[in-house]
Specification:
The two termini are 17 Å apart. The radius of gyration is 19 Å and the shape is globular. The protein is mainly β. 2% of the residues lie in helices and 47% in strands.
Amino acid sequence: MYQWPPFTFFDHHMVTEEGSDKPHPLFKELNIVCCTSGRGNIIVGDIEGFINIVDRDFKARAFQAYDRTVKHVQQLKGHNILVTVGSDDHPIESTLRIWNLDKQDKTGNPLCVKSLELNVNKPITKLASTEDLTHIAVGTMDGTVILVCGDIVRERKPKHMEIRPMDGIPVTGLGWNEGWLGGHALYVVTSATTQCFHFFSSMRVEELDPDQGAELDCAVLSEQNNMIAARDNVLPPPTAPLTPLTPPIPTPPNRPSASPAHFLITIIGG
């Protein structure tokens, strides 16, 4: 029977304190909730409401983004902009904030260019923003998808729309295909289904895979703007026919990631 062969792609070593062989204290001290990366940095949101920006030399700077906790972070690719969701007061209530990391406020922290209360009184599971900051979507534990759209930074009250109603099935993946046929397309993955919402002059919904979804953190948007949903034995981009892998993944996948030429799956306990 064919088995997945092991490969050693990377040399690994412990990140230590400068001039010491002890583990770097930064990662031991952080109670990490979410993370993103870009422009040579790892950006970590923690349970105490801080955003921690770590450079290639593992030198970190931090600022308080929320009074309570940071829930989700996304670093834009084309601009040094960070999109975050977190809580200031009640743990269920959520605030969307947009930070310009190239500019500073009077206290020396990154400049917050937008703070917007989200009318979402339920746990948010996913966040996805377009590069031009005209469309930001959040998905929730009960299957609702809320879209904030318009000139989000400049408009006082950008439009909020519920584009996917509650069905009790968690949203496990979100990703934008920008500029698709002159508009934007939003991939929505739940644990039971995969959909695509097309935004032109009006919204159109397409069921890409009505009978299959992916678990939380098992869907990723590729550089070719395909949403890849990793399941026990299938790795299809929803824009292509579903084709099982040969051989199947030996254990359930967790946290796939994609680059222009590679696709990486992390298997916990595999």
